[in-house]
Amino acid sequence: MNNDIEKILYSVDDIHEAASRLGKQLADDYRDKNPMMVCVLKGAVLFMADVIREMPVYSTIDFVDVSSYNGGTESSGQVELVTDLSSDVQGRDIVLVEDIIDTGRTLAYLIDLLKDRGANSISVCTLLDKPSGRVVEAKADYVGFEVPNEFLVGYGLDYQGQYRNLPYIGILKPSVYLDK
Question: What positions does the domain Phosphoribosyltransferase occupy (predicted)?
């Protein structure tokens, strides 16, 4: 897998520092609020685990799975709810935890869904923010890194279900996906 990476953007240490920084910031901001941390599967699971370990405050967790890439390198433009939350969000302070915000479609879809279900507040924590990929307005409240318009894999991010287990974030060589 390492041979498929053109360049490592963020090392294990870089990622750990970002998760620690964001977890501490969230703990300060949500100290007395008992937030529901909502992990956007599958990509954000590693990041959320690292972030919540840095949050010594009462909180609950839940998971939602949405899809718009369908295994490719570009969003299909349609967001599909694959697995819904198991908890009621009515009156709760929600922190959506994302691996990457690219087009903004998934984030906009989830925010609308949570608002419609009566969430008290919704904030967004993302490891990676790619503003150059936006096609709809979307903004994160907590950001690990702003990234270039490249196809990234590792630390939860995938291409066709692979590369999520890389401990770093890197740029996938175009030769891996252009000939597919």
Answer: 12-160
DSSP letter assigned to residue 80: E
Report DSSP state, residue 154: B
Which residue in 102, 129, 158, 179 is the catalytic one? 102
Q: Which two tokens stand for residue 5?
A: 């990476």
Which residues sit opposite 129 in a β-bridge?
101, 146
Q: Burial level of 43, CB count in 10 A (0-12/13-18/19+)? A: buried
Are the beta carbons of 41 and 63 closer than 8 angstroms?
A: yes
14 is catalytic: no
Q: pTM higher than 0.85, yes or no?
A: yes
- pLDDT single digits (tens) 47-60: 999 999 999 999 99
